[in-house]
């Protein structure tokens, strides 16, 4: 096996806390809304929206635009159908303002000392860049589904990341808090690291973070991964 | 006019010293070669190689591959036809190992404090990422012709950069040491900043760095640009 030289990271839930960030912002701006239910309802529409692109039902569409359509769908259910265009546009960009988990910035800085570290997210390039600049995520390179015009778990995304660096898939490790993302990466020949994020859906909805022995690494958080990788 | 929020940078000659870097490496490894002539001969084939892609004669091809073809063309002229595959591959990746101009890292760090800073180069993503990691170039995002599958001065590259961030072209400023790059960006509605790099082709071939009043800014180097932009 060649040594791993590139680490590519899932973002939503793995590096940033989408649920907690959206809950805090919605609670602050729209205190009448059940922010936990709102965040989960928005996110529930994520895979079905991307599936319309994956299936070819619609052409390549950036996640910002998919998020906006999902938002339009759920606003009436939460009594927010009165929001004007500027309010909707601002709320939709909450995905650019997600906060890193407490270990993320320090963990990435350590991992960056030995590896090339890149996002590899279904988020669009602008979203990921704005998020990184705001949160201090020290990427060597912002890679996105937008570069490959395909959404994970499409193999073109994982193989595209290896292709960008002209290395074999085995020299790339996918880091994610989602076993399905890692399984698809493994099918493409990438190494995989699972990150436990039991609070991804909030403290009221603890997630199963059981290890899968198929993964190359299993880590509590990004600092633990840095420890295991000797960074 | 909306305020400028995104700065996109040409790389070869603007942020890094391709001529000096190649000369130093060739002198060290192949002392019998006229390194100055070698570097210029390689670079002279740059625009014709990309023109084959722009014209549609060949499909999308990364710059690493174009550089390799250009290298194969010039090796015999410099008595280097005996290089084996590993030596050719290593020499071709000298474009990943170009050194920043002395002002680049400090200038970019200052500009980053007020603007989103991105590469916008015909170099491929892997080349630009390796170069940035080695040289300490603190990009918020590595943008490349590879993202848009088009080579500058194709308008898709300049307009693509604005599109990535969902801003109008006037909110983006192209920073380059080449008037033709800036003219193409201006035609797309971007602001432009010219950077003087009189030594781009080496001390023996001083370049004309006269101002063009059509540019939004004219700066001696990136520190001067940061001064003018109040960073």
The chain pair forming the largest interface, with residue counts per chain, is: A-B, 20 and 20 residues
For the terminal residues of chain A, how far apart are their CA atoms?
20 Å
Task: Estimate the global geometry of chain A from the Cα principal axes.
Answer: globular
Rounded Rg of chain A: 17 Å
Helix count of chain A equals: 11
Question: Spans of chain A of 5+ residues with little confidence (pLDDT < 50)?
Answer: none
At the fourth level of CATH, the homologous superfamily of the largest domain in chain A is HAD superfamily/HAD-like
Looking at the structure, the CATH topology of the largest domain in chain A is Rossmann fold
CATH architecture of the largest domain in chain A: 3-Layer(aba) Sandwich
Helix content of chain A: 40-55%
The CATH first-level class of the largest domain in chain A comes to: Alpha Beta
Q: What portion of the residues of chain A fall into strands of 2 or more residues? A: 5-15%
Mean pLDDT of chain A: 97
How do the strands of the widest beta sheet of chain A line up side by side?
Answer: 3-2-1-4-5-6
- Which class do the helix and strand fractions of chain A yield? alpha/beta
Main beta sheet of chain A: 6 strands, parallel
Report the strand count of chain A.
6
Keywords (chains A, B): Hydrolase
GO molecular function (chains A, B): (S)-2-haloacid dehalogenase activity
Catalytic activity (chains A, B): an (S)-2-haloacid + H2O = a (2R)-2-hydroxycarboxylate + a halide anion + H(+)
Function (chains A, B): Catalyzes the hydrolytic dehalogenation of small (S)-2-haloalkanoic acids to yield the corresponding (R)-2-hydroxyalkanoic acids.
């Amino acid at each position: 096996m060649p040594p791993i030289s590139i680490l590519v990271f899932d973002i939503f839930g793995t590096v940033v806390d989408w649920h907690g960030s959206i809950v805090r912002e919605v609670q602050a701006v729209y205190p009448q809304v059940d922010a936990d239910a709102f965040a989960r309802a928005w996110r529930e529409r994520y895979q079905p929206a991307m599936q319309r692109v994956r299936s070819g039902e619609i052409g390549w569409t950036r996640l910002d635009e998919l998020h906006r359509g999902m938002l339009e769908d759920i606003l009436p259910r939460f009594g927010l159908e009165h929001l004007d265009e500027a309010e909707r546009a601002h709320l939709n960009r909450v995905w650019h303002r997600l906060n890193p988990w407490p270990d993320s910035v320090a963990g990435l800085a350590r991992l960056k000392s030995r590896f090339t570290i890149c996002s590899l997210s279904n988020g669009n390039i602008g979203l990921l860049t704005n998020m990184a600049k705001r949160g201090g995520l020290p990427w060597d390179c912002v890679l996105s589904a937008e570069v490959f015009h395909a959404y994970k778990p499409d193999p073109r995304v994982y193989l595209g990341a290896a292709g960008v660096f002209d290395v074999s898939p085995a020299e790339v490790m996918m880091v994610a808090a989602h076993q399905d993302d890692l399984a698809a990466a493994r099918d493409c020949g990438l190494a995989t690291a699972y990150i436990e994020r039991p609070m991804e859906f909030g403290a009221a909805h603890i997630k199963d973070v059981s290890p899968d022995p198929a993964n190359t690494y299993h880590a509590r958080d990004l600092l633990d991964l840095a420890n295991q990788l000797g960074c």
